[in-house]
Amino acid sequence: MARAHRVALLGTVVVISYVLTFFKILSVPLLDAKVADQIIPVLPWWLLVSFGSYCLWSIGMGLLTLRECPEAYNELLGEITEAKNDLRMKGVTVD
Amino acid sequence: MQGSFNSPDTHKYSVILPTYNERKNLPVIVWLLAKTFTENQLAWEIIVVDDNSPDGTQEIAKQLAKLYGEDKIVLKPRAGKLGLGTAYIHGLNFVTGDFVIIMDADFSHHPKFIPQFIRLQKAHNLDIVTGTRYRATSKPSSPDAQPGGVHGWDFTRKLVSRGANFLADTVLNPGVSDLTGSFRLYRLPVLRHIITETVSKGYVFQMEMMVRARALGYTVGEVPITFVDRIYGDSKLGSNEIVSYAKGIWVLFTTV
Ligand SMILES: Nc1nc2c(ncn2[C@@H]2O[C@H](COP(=O)(O)OP(=O)(O)OP(=O)(O)O)[C@@H](O)[C@H]2O)c(=O)[nH]1
Ligand SMILES: [Mg+2]
């Protein structure tokens, strides 16, 4: 089973249980019926907004924590010069 | 694990270096590799897979083979530009070591990290060690890791790279922080196994290798690396790559 199939299976189960609760065929345990009535219609939107925020947050944090490494660049420039000088001495064409 | 080579650590490390128009970069990267391997007393070879670069990369490779020895610099060219994925497969046919290092020839991948890869591999008997630009510590943790990073990337490049990794990570959950990078150490049979199962090309190729590795149950470690964008030569990241990358994620999602 590919990952897509597992996700689709899980998604189907979730959607079916949601539809059944929405039409009051299933009841929500441990929750007052009045409260449940208010939460259930907005649940999909809440999930959507949460997921959107999660995406933005993850990519944003990723961008912020992506470190700049100028020291590696400077070190490399030095090494390139050293390598070229050494190779030139040994008869390798470097341009 | 004990290897079967007559070297201080009983192993031999083969670098597969695909090149296309890397005339300026090749001698320097080879020099840096040779220096790293010698200083760390490692047995090594470099397999240069050049796709008949018009800039004469092969001519330089021949000079390097003369200098370092033809057993160390092994030139295995191909007739034309056939792409990166098949370059690794081609190079693999000539590997004589028991570990393979895959890296770019443009100095984005600095050889100084190779000893760290090897130490991490040995400490945890890992199948694969991959370099990551996005972590500050290695995984599993080790004391000698320095934070990773990038140099020479503008905002767009950073955003694309972060977005690409986030997308793949969310959809495929391969458990590796840097999926598009290609600086990695593999056990030879592991690389052979994964590469035969890998179907995609371009940027997706590197990502697919990690997704497959995970699906096949191989252990993967991560070492933070600093990534300096190429100094000589042209970069070719465009919107075409982005579209084919997204398609590639979808294919993997529905098949692996
Ligand atoms: N043999 C072979 N090598 C290639 C080919 N395309 C790229 N390469 C080499 O593969 C390595 C990675 O390619 P790059 O052009 O650096 O790709 P990149 O790192 O994704 O992009 P930039 O560094 O931004 O240009 C380099 O060593 C190239 O010379 C190819 O078709 N055949
Ligand atoms: Mg590059």
From TrEMBL, chain A:
Keywords: Glycosyltransferase, Transferase. This is Dolichol-phosphate mannosyltransferase subunit 3. It comes from Psilocybe cubensis (Psychedelic mushroom).
TrEMBL record, chain B:
The keyword Acyltransferase does not apply. Keywords: Endoplasmic reticulum, Glycosyltransferase, Magnesium, Manganese, Metal-binding, Transferase. Transfers mannose from GDP-mannose to dolichol monophosphate to form dolichol phosphate mannose (Dol-P-Man) which is the mannosyl donor in pathways leading to N-glycosylation, glycosyl phosphatidylinositol membrane anchoring, and O-mannosylation of proteins. Its cofactor is Mg(2+); Mn(2+); Ca(2+). GO terms for cellular component: endoplasmic reticulum membrane. This is Dolichol-phosphate mannosyltransferase subunit 1. It comes from Psilocybe cubensis (Psychedelic mushroom). GO terms for molecular function: dolichyl-phosphate beta-D-mannosyltransferase activity; metal ion binding. Its EC number is 2.4.1.83.
